[in-house]
Amino acid sequence: MKKVAIITGGAGGIGFQCAKQYRDCHVVLAGRKEDGLKDAVAKLKSDGYEASYVVTDISNKDSVQGMYAHGKSKGDIFYVVNSAGVSGAGAPLEIVYDVDVEGARLVTEGAYEHLASGGVLVLIASMMHKIIELKPEERGTYLQGGEKGKEIFLKTTNDPNTGYALAKRINVELVKEKADAFGEKGLRIVAVSPGIILTPMAKEAMEKYPEKMKVLEQATPVGRMGEPEDVAKAVAFLCSEDASFITGSILHVDGGLHPRKLG
Fold first, then answer.
1. Are 29 and 19 in contact (CB under 8 A)?
2. Distance from C-alpha of 230 to C-alpha of 185, rounded to nearest angstrom
3. Is the pTM of this model over 0.70?
4. CA–CA separation, 224 and 261 (whole Å)
5. Is the pLDDT of residue 137 over 90?
6. Could you tell me if residue 190 is left (phi over 0), alpha (psi between -120 and 50 degrees) or otherwise beta?
7. Is the Cβ–Cβ distance between 213 and 206 less than 8 Å?
8. How far apart are CA 170 and CA 134, in angstroms?
């Protein structure tokens, strides 16, 4: 059967560029907005890809299971990239938790259940996870998820940006925690931690705040901001045989920028 790659948040930005790395697979794009998914699948097909989409809310367990069922109807699932997420700037804390924490956990649970032997799960984190240290007594609760985790999350911070950083820290810890279990099934789990990437949202910010964005660019040691393709190529490497000895690890694709340099 054909290998299948599932990309959440695959309709645009980093997710769509990740999808383009899997030309030899049936590519499944998952997301909440059907119109965007249709357009993205049409673009892939026009470039010769075999592709389909499934409307998915990753914060909903049944919806995530439906996503995996769709993937398995197309072949054996070998690659899952969780690029879906919301930023602290544009969503209330409850949504940040539901999507960025609970959603990542549900996608991870589903990948563990449905990936074919030799398969790989990649979670897209963020360099902002570096500013957060989890308390040992809270770590286990966050990784178990559910309402108890959400309760602690909402009590920990009332700032959406800090909540976003905390969510991405939990993603990183999830990768470390699940490496053993994935390995026992012949699977790998890894994360990519992007820096400032020129997604459509970032390009809009450049137009609105050119001086601020220039400062961020100058603070990046490589002297430029990242492109979605930079992240996608890192994801492709982690899913390749060249990375077969890498699991439970976080690959930083940030041009050397540390968030503490942002003030």
1. yes
2. 30
3. yes
4. 15
5. no
6. beta
7. yes
8. 8
Structure token digits, residue 149:
């985790």
Do the beta carbons of residue 195 and residue 253 sit within 8 Å? yes
Q: Are 86 and 126 in contact (CB under 8 A)?
A: no
263 has a pLDDT exceeding 60: no
- Helix (H), strand (E), coil (C) string for the chain: CCEEEEEECCCCHHHHHHHCCCCCCEEEEEECCHHHHHHHHHHHHHCCCEEEEEECCCCCHHHHHHHHHHHHCCCEEEEEEECCCCCCCCCCHHHHHHHHHHHHHHHHHHHHHHCCCCCEEEEECCHHHHHCCCCHHHHHHHHHCHHHHHHHHHHHCCCHHHHHHHHHHHHHHHHHHHHHHHHHCCCEEEEEEECCECCHHHHHHHHHCHHHHHHHHHHCCCCCCECHHHHHHHHHHHHCHHHCCCCCCEEEECCCCCHHHHC
Q: Are 11 and 29 in contact (CB under 8 A)?
A: yes
Measured at the CA of 81, the angle between CA 72 and CA 145, to 5 degrees, comes to 95
Tokens of 19: 């999808």
Length of the chain: 263
Please list, in sequence order, all residues whose beta carbon lies within 8 angstroms of the beta carbon of residue 228, skipping any fewer than 6 positions away.
Answer: 13, 14, 16, 17, 197, 198, 199
Residue 100 pLDDT more than 90? yes
What is the β-pairing status of strands 76-82 and 50-55? unpaired
The token pair at 224 is 């430029």
